[in-house]
Amino acid sequence: MSHLVSKCYWLSTWNAMYQHTIDPINGRSMWPRSECPTTLLPPKHHKQVGRLKKKRKRAADEPTQSTSLSRKYLTVTCSKCHNKGHSARTCKGQGGPSEARKGSGQKKGKDVVV
């Protein structure tokens, strides 16, 4: 029959676990004094420096509610040489038309004759 019941339910196991007595301790008034402070105070509040955040920081798995499209998959086109992959700021004349586009020749604004 002992092979059907787990060993933790045997009376001999229970007697072995509870044979040691737990002695009561002295009352709180008889405890030794501790050198550590007994009351812990919260940290002092200080005003944060800088401009406050307008919106909360969103978690990585939260969807963005942006109305504008992201530029994640767009390729940049240079306005000087009209090649893709760089902007006019970093253009080094990498192929494409060497001269800048010529306008219609009309100047904007009014010519004042005195």
Overview of the molecule:
Residues 43-58 have a biased composition (Basic residues). The protein is 6% helix and 0% strand. The chain is built from one helix and no strands. It has one helix at residues 11-17. The longest helix is centred in the N-terminal third of the chain and has 7 residues, at 11-17. The protein is elongated. The chain starts with 10 loop residues before the first helix and ends in a 97-residue tail after the last helix.
* Percent helix range: under 10%
Principal-axis shape equals elongated
Oligomer: single chain
Helical segment tally?
1
Q: What number is the mean pLDDT?
A: 79
Largest sheet: none
| Radius of gyration over C-alpha positions, nearest whole angstrom | 41 Å
Helix/strand-derived category reads: little secondary structure
Number of strands: 0
Instruction: Give the percentage of residues in beta strands.
Output: under 5%
First-to-last CA distance: 124 Å
The topology string of helices and strands comes to H
Low-pLDDT ranges: none
Protein name: CCHC-type domain-containing protein
Biased composition (Basic residues): 43-58
Region (Disordered): 37-68, 83-114
